[in-house]
Design brief:
Elements: E1 8-19, E2 22-29, E3 44-49, E4 53-58, E5 69-74, H1 78-84, E6 91-98, H2 104-107, E7 112-117, H3 121-133, E8 141-147, H4 156-162, E9 168-174, E10 184-185, E11 203-207, H5 210-222, E12 230-233, E13 249-250, E14 253-254, H6 255-258, E15 261-263, H7 264-269
This protein binds flavin-adenine dinucleotide and FE2/S2 (inorganic) cluster.
Length: 274
């Protein structure tokens, strides 16, 4: 019988230093005969390292035909530190994909506003890559992204290259500039007045620290964006990732199963950020 908790082995093909304490790992299934990993933007995996345990990480790249996928990991505790010490050709275990995707059916042909803070750009990148790969299926795209300092902006070159897509605007900000920074300073919400999308019809997708999501949603609502068109990716402590242990349970919902992506209408019912 198939055991859901039995991890698949994946090999690290490439490692990129994105920012201090943040690395992006390109992974592939060790035995491709076991099939390609099928996932959608917004879903996550449970990644395990013997001796260090298991933790959730979001797919940070769009589903690709070559079967490779990426995760971007911020070093925080023992598992993430051990991951940062790994090298190319090392192997880790993964379970999943788990959770729901971003609302892919609700964003087609719509104008899209993406709002990210720090490492919160990782899950959004998977969707943004997919949107730009199928550019004609979407309206105007604006991306508002902020980090603490210029060095902490992840995927910097890729984000700058997104600006080359038609009908696309990228707005970047940092809390604390350095001598290399000629752009905006301050929190992401300070950039909202630059957004030119029609608030009545555009869909907003946010990911970042809870405090950023809370204040960004407040400001977005003030600009006239509809609460039914706002979605956020939430982080909760997780153990099983598969709706079994109850670790991530809030008011009748399992964040690992019913989320991690929720509409603002759902978040209000769960009394998150409302
Ligand atoms: C659905 C989901 C997707 C995630 N995707 C990513 C990702 O793409 N990249 C990434 O770097 N991290 C991601 N995380 C967070 C990641 O799982 C934690 O950073 C990781 O578990 C830390 O493990 P550790 O053993 O290194 O640190 P620990 O020692 O377990 O924790 C270090 C610190 O981080 C806090 N922490 C740990 N896990 C969480 C959590 N889930 N929510 C809030 N605080 C937490 C702990 O309270 C502690 O203060 C995601 C979390 C969830 C729930
Ligand atoms: S993490 Fe176990 S039920 Fe969600």
């Amino acid at each position: 019988m198939k055991n859901e908790y039995f991890p698949k082995i994946v090999v690290i093909e490439n490692i990129v230093n994105e920012a201090p304490d943040v690395k992006t790992f390109t992974l592939r299934l060790k035995h491709e005969s076991g099939g390609k990993l099928k996932y959608k933007p917004g879903q996550f995996m449970m990644l395990s390292l013997p001796g260090y345990g298991e933790a959730p990480f979001t797919f940070a790249s769009r589903p690709a035909s070559n079967g490779r996928f990426q995760i971007t990991v911020k070093k925080l505790g023992s598992l993430t530190a051990a991951l940062h010490d790994l090298r190319e050709k090392d192997a880790v275990g993964i379970r999943g994909p788990y959770g729901n995707s971003f609302p892919l059916d609700k964003i087609e042909n719509k104008d899209l506003l993406f709002v990210a803070g720090g490492i919160g750009m990782a899950p959004l990148r998977s969707l943004i890559q997919q949107v730009f790969k199928n550019r004609k299926n979407y309206g105007n795209v604006e991306i508002v992204y902020g980090s603490r300092s210029p060095r902490e902006l992840v995927y910097k070159d890729e984000i700058i290259s997104w600006q080359d897509n038609p009908d696309t605007d990228i707005h970047l900000t940092v809390d604390t500039p350095d001598e290399t920074w000629g752009g905006a300073c301050g929190v992401v919400c300070a950039l909202f007045p630059k957004v030119k999308l029609d608030p009545k019809t555009s869909v907003v997708i946010l990911c970042g620290p809870p405090v950023m999501i809370k204040s960004a949603i407040k400001d977005i609502l003030k600009l006239g964006f509809r609460d039914s068109n706002i979605y956020a990716s939430l982080e909760r402590h997780m153990k099983c990732g598969a709706g079994k242990c109850g670790h991530c349970y809030i008011k009748g919902k399992y964040v690992c199963l019913d989320g991690p992506n929720f509409s603002y209408l759902e978040m209000k019912k769960l009394e998150i950020n409302s």
